[in-house]
Automatic annotation (TrEMBL), chain A:
One of its GO terms (molecular function) is lyase activity. Belongs to the CPA3 antiporters (TC 2.A.63) subunit D family. This is Hydrogenase-4 component B / Formate hydrogenlyase subunit 3. Residues 122-414 form the NADH:quinone oxidoreductase/Mrp antiporter transmembrane domain. It is a multi-pass membrane protein. It is found in: Cell membrane; Membrane. It comes from Alishewanella agri BL06. It holds the Pfam family Proton_antipo_M.
Automatic annotation (TrEMBL), chain B:
GO terms for molecular function: oxidoreductase activity. Its main location: membrane. GO terms for cellular component: plasma membrane. It is found in: Cell membrane; Membrane. This is NADH:quinone oxidoreductase/Mrp antiporter transmembrane domain-containing protein. InterPro entries: ComplexI-like_HydComp, ND/Mrp_TM. Coiled coil: none annotated. It is a multi-pass membrane protein. The lineage of its organism: Bacteria, Pseudomonadati, Pseudomonadota, Gammaproteobacteria, Alteromonadales. The chain crosses the membrane at residues 20-40, 52-69, 75-92, 104-126, 146-166, 178-197, 209-228, 235-257, 263-289, 301-320, 332-356, 382-406, 418-443. It comes from the Bacteria. The keyword Chloroplast does not apply.
Automatic annotation (TrEMBL), chain C:
It comes from the Bacteria. The lineage of its organism: Bacteria, Pseudomonadati, Pseudomonadota, Gammaproteobacteria, Alteromonadales. Belongs to the CPA3 antiporters (TC 2.A.63) subunit D family. Its main location: membrane. It comes from Alishewanella agri BL06. The chain crosses the membrane at residues 6-25, 37-55, 75-102, 167-189, 209-235, 247-267, 279-297, 309-333, 378-403, 415-440, 461-481. Residues 131-425 form the NADH:quinone oxidoreductase/Mrp antiporter transmembrane domain. It is a multi-pass membrane protein. The keyword Nucleotidyltransferase does not apply. This is NADH-ubiquinone oxidoreductase subunit L.
Automatic annotation (TrEMBL), chain D:
Keywords: Membrane, Transmembrane, Transmembrane helix. This is Multisubunit sodium/proton antiporter subunit MrpC. It comes from the Bacteria. Pfam families: Oxidored_q2 (PF00420). It is a multi-pass membrane protein. It is found in: Membrane. The chain crosses the membrane at residues 6-25, 32-51, 63-86. Its main location: membrane.
Amino acid sequence: MFPALLLVTLPLSAALLMLLWPRFARSLHVTVALLSVPLAGYFLQQILLHGEQQWLLGGWSPLLAIRWQADSLSALLLLLSALLHLLVSGYALAVQARDRLPAAFWPLSSLLLASLQALWLARDLFNWYVCLELLGMVAVALVTLSGDKALKPALNYLLFSLFASLCYLLGVALLYAGYGALDLPLLAGQLEANRLNAMALLLITLGLMLKAACWPLHIWLPAAHAAAPAAVSALLSALVVKGPLFILYLVWTELAPQAFWLPASYLFALAALGALLFGGIAALRTPYGKSLVAYSTVAQLGYATLALAFVLRFNLPEFVAALWLFVLAHALAKAASFLAMGELQQTLGSKQVSALKGASQTMPLAMFAFAVAGGSLIGLPPSGGFLAKWALLLGLWQSQQYFWLLVLAVATLLAAAYVFRVVVLAFDRAEPTAPDFAPQRLPQYLALLPALAVWAMALFSMPLLTLLKQEL
Amino acid sequence: MIDLSHLLWPGAGLGFTSAVSQGWLLFTLLLWLLALLYSLSSQQQDPRAGRYWLFMLLCFAGNVLLIAAQDALSFYLGFSMMSLAGTGLVLHSGTKQARRAGRLYLQLAVIGELLLFSALVLRASAAGGLYDWQSWQNVPLDHLTISLFVLGLGLKAGFFPLHLWLPQAHPVAPAAASAVLSGAMIKAGIFGMWLFLPATDPLLQQWGQGVLWLGFVSAIFGALAALCQQKSKQILAYSSVSQMGYLLMLLSLSWLLPPAQQSLALIALVGYAAHHAFAKGALFLLAGSASRYRFGTGDQLLLGFFIVSLAALPFTSGAMAKTALKQATAAFALPAANLLYLGALCTALALCHLLMRLKAEQLALLSQTSASNMPWLQRGPVLLLAVAAVLLSWSGVMPASASVWLPLGITSYTSLSLQALTAAAIWAAIWPLLMALPTYYLLQRFAGSWLLQLGRRQRWVFFTSLKLKRLYQPL
Amino acid sequence: MQAWLLDYLPLLIVLSSLLPGLLIFTLKEQQVALRTFLNLLGVTLKLVLVFLMWQGVKEGESYYYRIAFLPGADLILQADALSLLFVVLSSVLWLATTIYAIGYLEHSPLRSRFFGYFSLCVSATVGLALAGNLVTFLLFYELLTLATFPLVVHRGTPQSLAAGRRYLAYTLSGGLLLMLGVSLLHLLAGSPDFTPGGYLAPLLASGSILLQVAFALLIAGLGVKAALFPLHGWLPQAMVAPAPVSALLHAVAVVKAGAFGIVRVVYDVFGVEVVRALDLAWPLLFLAAFTILFGSWRALAQQDLKKRLAYSTISQVSYITLGVALLGPLAAVGALVHLVHQGVMKITLFFCAGNYAETLGIHKIRELNGVGRQMPMTSLAFTIGALGMIGIPPAAGFISKWYLGLGAAEVAQPWVILVFVLSGLLNACYFLPVVYRIWFGVQYSAWPSPQRLSSRFETHWMLLAPSMFTLGLILLMGLFASTELSPLSWSELIVEREFSFDD
Amino acid sequence: MLSFYLYLGTAVLLVGIGGLGLWRGPELLRRILALNVIGAGIFMLMVTLAYRPVMQGEPADSVLHALVLTGLVVAVSATAFALALLGRLLTRAD
């Protein structure tokens, strides 16, 4: 109980304190970020030792109380968020001397962490709504940090996010009308397959898919993620879009009646198909570096959506494993690639992909980080992306989904194409773009860190799968 | 025999275990050593002498190796070493003729190599993965393998339809190289056929007749074609085609004859080959010298001796060889044994032509410059070849005690020379010659220009070769 | 040698090039001596370790190193006779190529990067050779792609970038197909260690379609690197890379990885019996035969020396595939020994091409006229290499061709010998004119850009020595084929020990 | 009972109007307003649902009231944030 509560309250209270004493904002932030990691680690260990735990906040009865529940998946996500948050904080500090982020960054990102951690822990439909709302607004606020050019995408993001929240809220209200409960374990298995529930679930799904940027509801994402400062983009792409996905997964596997699973799986599969193909193609065509990475997020979320679709359709452990492995691998890889790309753009002074000419000589570390992270996005062994894809492949072969194997192949090739589009350019020695200033080493190393971590992921596949409670 | 199987490849070994290979080695070695001696003088002013010696020695090594080989791979190694290094000799002078002849030589040599390769592979496979001769002797042949052998080795031996490269390549090489090309190297083809096509194989009976006729056609064709040539070395080259025909006949006779008489044919084969090696080698050397040096009387006598020997006049090695051939033919009871006289006539005609052309060339040389005498370093080897030829034809007359020193199993050949001394044999050798002289005169008188034109009819070979080259080497 | 160390031997062999490679990345451009030292240290270490392993494997010891990786498919590095063949080949040729590359790249920029990737490339190759199951193989197969790509684009010119893109397009697609195949097999049979005779026989009863699909996927994936006919497109373009890279790509690293994989798949995954039962060898056989002729045919038309060599590689590597597809013991010996022989011969040819280019600026074949007098040693090496490619003794190529021919006759496919003959003919057609130009051609214009690289030798000694070394290897392997050290004996040992032929 | 359906109808109508506004309007301000209208509709729906027990004579569902209150706070702050952003955007555009 205590560590879980701390994980949420620590960043939350720190954020409030930062507003009070902006002078100590940075040091407070770093302290919280540093504390969160061992705390999350300790928490994970506790969960492993004692199994799943749950608490009803404030000791209220289940109907009224806010329920927190933590299984190993939640604990893992808590740790991941804490780690990436620490990494991004480190990056923000490292580039502080060069391009100063507005002071608002520190409290906002602490707030982001708090809302995310609360989201992973909550098992309550309305509580999730609050988390989502908070997450969305903080994210928008973070996007605006990069200045006036980000205002338009940020506002767009906000509107989409609000609309999505409202959809979700409406759905939740409809469910509550039927069953008078918001608590997930209480509702689990209760829902009948009637029209009202279908409507409610559809609204919830729509809202969540919008927030998770599932194709074709992703249109807000590329602009917003591309416009944000690199550190923020990394957080947004790596973590924020995963929150709604987490809720979506729980809602469908625990709440939704089995009769709805098949149509839902078609819906998700369609979204995945679009994401994988069109996301990839868009990433291949965009002239801007960060948009490329952002579109890649859209495409990569397609894998997770696909896994979700097949979880609903076949209920094989491979797909569940694939879903979460994709989430983990993508989080790490995307953090690395956004940080690397941001660093490259900042140093080379242009947003264009074409400006990366010769980057493998001028900024080898950042380019290497991007390429290594890209390897995981493509799914090259032994990266985490490979591990996830492997699980997905096994599931697809087992359920004899040959069409989807083909889709997967095409998507992989598209990923390879957009990653190596950048990498090949970086090897161009004809007219390398000269850096505007001497490249900083520390931020590049920080970008490399998650990339290396994701490549080590496959070596720890067994512990990971144990954590996910899945067997291949 | 040296066993190298633990070192090189399974079954590898070197040695001279049969009488045929011993005899073959002896004349080959002799010719090679003398030719190399001759080169000391002839290549003295050659700016690219290093290259010449390299290829000469490679060819030499290859030639000896293929005779010494006790297994297919060693043979093939020697064979291809010799064949390919031979290209260097043909190309050596770098003239246009040399280049196109070299191209033709190489094209056909490579084809020959590959045919031989596939034949060897099939054979080795049939023998269960063993490569040494002993294991191959009793493995039955099949038609495909035989035809591959005949084609592959025939391209080297240069008998009739496979001779295309020979008359082009031999004349353009330096004299000593032509001597070994014609005297020793092309014989490797026949030697190989003897090795790979054991007479005991029943299937060869079917092939023997055809090959025999092929040899005969080649013998006649070569001689007649020689008549159409103008250059002495080209005449010699065509004469080689003709002589290879005789060797082929002897080989096929060894297949056809009953086992008891096979050794006769084989002895005749080696004897003939040795005779041809000495005579043709010497003639090429002389022809080379004739284009640069003035011939003294002694030299002319030497020349005459070899021509006469090649024409198989009595008391020469040629007579011995021809007698052996006739005996073998007679033993087989060939109905057309008399056709051999036709062959002898043609040979004689060709040699007359050679003599005339040599004379003309010598006159042309003398009219242009004041050529010096032939150096002893060149004359010496030719003289030694003459001695060898005489020894070959007369060793049978020597008392047995004197011939004991002859190495290995060579003594078995000496009996041949005795048979050439009977009156019938002498007469049989002389009359075609006597007929040849007036025939040659008449031919030159009435058909000289026609023959000349006929001789130019070989451009298609180069044309095809060039076409081929364009095919694989587009501009 | 300590027992615990023996267990780690396979890992150490991979690390002996990986760690120096990673260290080299961090070096500055000017630290030439340190870089060279690290390079040579890695090479020497690797050779010593490989020697130890060779000793052990010959005695019948087994080395086995396992790290947990995917569920049901650990990362296994192990040494059997077959893997050792490839390991020895790559480490010995790495030695030659490293020295060559040091000489070749003297005074050129970005050497740390180059040598770093170079070492990674060798590590991936060795890892691939030592891979103990399909998943490990897949891992190193992909790593190899990644490690070689920067080498292909090292020059950074538009041509090399285009070549790099193409290379990636082909090899990544290949890797993807391989991954599909491996995952399918993993589902069907798990990913057990490579087993002599294959481990799929029990599955024959339960349906063959999926097995056939898996085979097709695996072969298509491997065929990309092995440059089998419709998948060969990357290879001729990739020759824009610097000469040492082309040498390594064509001789050891990339194309051989594909060929080696095919050997593994046919003999140690499917097994001869299953391949026969499923009728899988025929398409492979025809494809390989066609590729042999096709590559040679295309090589004829090339006027650029390296390009001609590249097409020749396409043709020559398919000999290995052909030998494998013949499914006979002798053909297998031929295929394995060709894996080594072709590597050594092709690396020699590329070294020579590089020597000509570096010393005299010669790239086109017509510029080679008369170069034999200027650079006799290089030209000698080139000539012997070319003769070996045609299959003429005593060069090593003859031995492999001979065994392949024997193998074809053994399984009663004499038409395959015709393929060899035709290919030999075509080989002669595109190599002998080059040799002719070198030795007999008349130089008609000045050398394109002559450089004086050495006062004593015809070129820099670091360029000359490796080619002389490999030249020596060609002749030794061709001549002393029966000795215990020869690749031939080793291949026979492999076939005897590890390939399951009934008779 | 009638009033229940009246409230319900109004709520649905509000959501509908908001949705239509969102759909039709390209202007950002209009969209923000439309979202607010939808929000109002949803809150009204929730309040209506909370009203159901009253019809049976039981006290109203206080959980829903709490939720609506929370929602209102969130909505107000979100609207404020959106308007602030819009303001900055518009001043920038001038």
